[in-house]
Amino acid sequence: MENDKGQLVELYVPRKCSATNRIIKADDHASVQINIAKVDADGRAIPGEYITYALSGSVRARGESDDSLNRLAQNDGLLKNVWSYSPEVTTIDYHDMLTINRIILAPGILSIIITSHLFYTSLICSNKLSSIYQAKSNEVDLKYNNIQRRKFVFEFENHLKLSSNTFDNNVHRLKSDNDFIPNYQKENATLLMLVRNQELEGALDSMRSLEDRFNRKYHYDWVFLNDVPFTEEFIEATTFMASGITKYGLIPSAHWNCPTWINQTEYEINLAKMEHDGVLYGGSKSYRNMCRFNSGFFFRQSILGEYDYYFRVEPHVNYFCDFPYDPFKIMRQKHLKYGFVIGIYEYENTIETLWDAIEEYIELDQHLSPSEQHIDMSSNAYKFITDKTKIGAYKPIIDSHSDYNLCHFWSNFEIGDLNFFRSDKYLKFFNHLDQKGGFYYERWGDAPIHSIAVSLLLNKDEIIHFDEIAYAHAPFNTCPISDSGLLYQRCRCQNPNDNIAITPHSCLMRWWKNGSGKYFMKEDNYMEE
């Protein structure tokens, strides 16, 4: 079409291809709705002031002249229930495109909206079409590259993974049968949930999601922990929901309640102040008990004594994709100690003195003999929790007042080695922090405690980001980015644009830089850091 400046612009009509991917050519039948909007003296659309026409007939061959407005005016198929005018729309639904050539844009007309009757998608045609076309070209090019890369990878018998620790086509793990075979030898592991009786509905929702996406094939045990006895209703409902054996543990009061050595007067004063200041869970005593328990006591429960690995599950969470592997098997085979899916920044007002205690612990460890030291700065992930440099376009979104950058693994999803948490080095680390009283005088969370511990005490190669596992816990979610992952894992991701992993609020980019690394495979299995 020609705009009011006499520039020639092409119009495209969304139209879905047939099952045979037939290319739409001249003389194909098209049926479209065209809305012509009127504008005021400033060139802005007048709400409700537009004329709607129906155009139905053969597609004109490219280059043929057509007095389109006259042709439209002669059409008697005037449509009702017209679409609302939206001047801000700049995107196109992905369909193959059908060209209608040389529709004249008369003076005083701001834009033309073309809508497919069959699929009710719309496109605003204006002077911005060139930028829209460029974006569309980039989208098609990216889709083509993804298809070619997928085809390239599938041709390898060993299902080569092109990249590690990133969102890409991890097709070596996406075979239809995954790693499951009849008589599969399970790992010595359990699914673990700390839950209250009144959270039964949320627990069942989480169980149903994880069973459907993972455990229905493997039948791992479920262990439930509570500081009060579970009700018969809870036990019955969760037993029927689980595909594996269910076990129920009562937490000893000494492992759950506030210790007697905490100064209750100081505790109550700080509790009231944090609640007044609006600190998240600042006034909650039970939340503090939970954080301390998850930091230093969950692994001491006798009901977990027989297991080597745990998968932490919370009520009201969701898993969007089929698991492409058994994560417990990955943990054992690769000698991993800790796995996560989301990394974000902590609220500094909950841990104001935590880093002081951490620095004190590091200094104490450095004064020990080499055989007694537990921290190896040459191989651990200390830089992950202290790096504040700009990465690409992003600096940390929160400017902390200590060397700690506030990055932590979101521990409501974690897969861990119980023997690491039972080890002397972790117990020594936890006991040093616990005696500071920060779980109660402040509101230290188990997420930064676990994250700092594994970053200091483990080799960074013993920590894994499970990028293929899709997970949601309000208010965040994460989902695979690759086309192949979404397809082969049968993903049903909610709000994929809200994927926390690829936003400035995520610490994942700092893990890629300072954690176990990010490398790409090249020819002849050559790896470059």
UniProtKB/TrEMBL annotation:
PANTHER family assigned to the protein according to its UniProt record, in alphabetical order: ALPHA-1,2 MANNOSYLTRANSFERASE KTR1, MANNOSYLTRANSFERASE KTR2-RELATED
Source organism: Arxiozyma heterogenica
Membrane-related topology note: Single-pass type II membrane protein
Protein's cellular compartments: Membrane
Record's protein name: 40S ribosomal protein S21
Gene Ontology CC entries for this record: cytosolic small ribosomal subunit; Golgi apparatus; membrane
Keywords annotated in UniProt: Glycosyltransferase, Membrane, Ribonucleoprotein, Ribosomal protein, Signal-anchor, Transferase, Transmembrane, Transmembrane helix
Gene Ontology MF terms: alpha-1,2-mannosyltransferase activity; structural constituent of ribosome
SUPFAM superfamilies: Nucleotide-diphospho-sugar transferases
Primary location recorded for the protein, binned into one broad class: membrane
InterPro entries: Glyco_trans_15, Nucleotide-diphossugar_trans, Ribosomal_eS21, Ribosomal_eS21_CS, Ribosomal_eS21_sf
TM stretches of this protein: 103-120
Record family assignment: Belongs to the glycosyltransferase 15 family. Belongs to the eukaryotic ribosomal protein eS21 family.
GO biological process: cell wall mannoprotein biosynthetic process; endonucleolytic cleavage in ITS1 to separate SSU-rRNA from 5.8S rRNA and LSU-rRNA from tricistronic rRNA transcript (SSU-rRNA, 5.8S rRNA, LSU-rRNA); endonucleolytic cleavage to generate mature 3'-end of SSU-rRNA from (SSU-rRNA, 5.8S rRNA, LSU-rRNA); protein N-linked glycosylation; protein O-linked glycosylation; translation
